[in-house]
Write a structure and sequence with these properties.
The protein is an all-alpha fold. The chain has 2 helices and no strands. The chain has one domain. 95% of the residues lie in helices and 0% in strands. Keywords: Membrane, Transmembrane, Transmembrane helix.
Length: 74
């Protein structure tokens, strides 16, 4: 039970990282039309860090809730 939960969390993290890479590449592709490449790169990296912190907070809360639920189930 716990192992499957950890596997789920790891899969979610991989999915988030993949989504982040796609999001940043799309964002940079859109912004390259409006501004020079280095500005787009800086903005993309900043957005990536912002999204990563949000995802980390979500995953921490999710893992904590999972532990509580598993503790009650066991």
């Amino acid at each position: 039970m716990v192992l499957s939960g950890m596997f789920l969390v790891i899969m979610l993290l991989h999915l988030m990282v993949a989504m982040l890479i796609v999001f940043v590449s799309l964002f940079m592709g859109l912004m390259r039309v409006f501004m020079p490449l280095w500005v787009a790169t800086v903005l993309g990296v900043r957005m990536a860090f912002f999204m990563l912190t949000i995802f980390q907070m979500i995953t921490v809360v999710f893992i904590f809730n999972l532990r509580v639920i598993l503790g009650r189930a066991l």
